[in-house]
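[step 3/7] inverse_fold.run input=structure_tokens len=282
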């Protein structure tokens, strides 16, 4: 494929859904003027995230939205030829899932429900149960949400399903137990970047990492949106500020170059790995 212009968003999104939709559409329109072909928004950008990881406030849940409702329809209408990934709370099974949806002007291309739930997140969201890649105009994509990328198996599953681009959508906060006085020095800031680079390098794929900024309840989000190459190198980043991390990249050529001598997928040894369902309980 030809080179693709990729953008990862760092921005603040709160509870006002209409305002969030307006902001998302505005960012899409601005990115389109800059030639962006793949745009990845943060998790929970339509209605915000929970305000406390350990004890989410039952009186202030993220609004549960219908994936066929007017909010997603407005994003589809704005997307045009662009491929857009964004996160929201999806109404499902009498509750809500922390979900990501990928769209273009032609409609929905793929979806993901967050599988791994940290701390008390299960009090606010239902869990997802699968990782699956899907085809888009810019290549085959797999999506992760937040804590999913802590687990190497998540990206490996998507890569084995043919994904060459991983869209990692986050509402990732600074440490809730030992927050540093400066965000760049925070332990979670270091881990956020480490996971992004490691997951890309392990699987020799392109990883597009978005994140919220600002504050929701007791959580202070880190920003640090970035695009990571298949060698684990950060190609563009917003650092801790809001903005757009943008890069033009020939995804297929970069992956081919990364796998030319050391091809991690071809060199896997499933015959000696312990299967996940045989792992001992902690």
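[step 3/7] decode complete -> sequence:
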């Amino acid at each position: 494929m030809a080179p693709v212009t990729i953008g990862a968003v760092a921005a603040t999104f709160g509870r006002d859904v209409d305002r969030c939709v307006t902001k998302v559409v505005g960012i899409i329109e601005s990115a389109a003027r800059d030639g962006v072909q793949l745009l990845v928004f943060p998790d929970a950008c339509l209605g915000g995230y929970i305000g406390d990881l350990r004890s989410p406030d039952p009186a202030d849940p993220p609004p549960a939205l219908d994936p066929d409702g007017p909010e997603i329809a407005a994003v589809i209408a704005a997307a045009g030829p662009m491929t857009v990934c964004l996160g929201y709370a999806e109404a499902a099974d009498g509750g809500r899932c922390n979900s990501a949806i990928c769209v273009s002007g032609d409609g929905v291309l793929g979806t993901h429900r967050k599988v791994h739930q940290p701390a008390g997140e299960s009090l606010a969201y239902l869990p997802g149960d699968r990782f699956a890649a899907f085809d888009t105009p810019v290549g085959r994509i797999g999506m992760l949400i937040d804590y999913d990328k802590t687990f190497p198996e998540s990206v490996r599953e998507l890569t084995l399903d043919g994904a060459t681009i991983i869209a990692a959508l986050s509402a990732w906060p600074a440490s809730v137990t030992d927050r540093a006085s400066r965000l760049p020095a925070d332990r979670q800031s270091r881990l956020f970047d480490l996971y992004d680079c490691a997951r890309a390098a392990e699987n020799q794929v392109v990883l597009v990492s978005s994140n919220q900024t600002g504050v929701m309840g007791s959580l202070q989000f880190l920003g640090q949106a970035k695009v990571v190459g298949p060698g684990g190198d950060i190609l563009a980043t917003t650092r801790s500020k809001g903005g757009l991390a943008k890069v033009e990249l020939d995804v297929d050529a970069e992956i081919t170059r990364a796998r030319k001598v050391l091809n991690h997928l071809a060199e896997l040894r499933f015959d000696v790995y312990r299967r996940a369902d045989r792992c001992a309980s902690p």
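[step 4/7] annotate
The radius of gyration is 18 Å.
The first strand starts at residue 4 and ends at 11.
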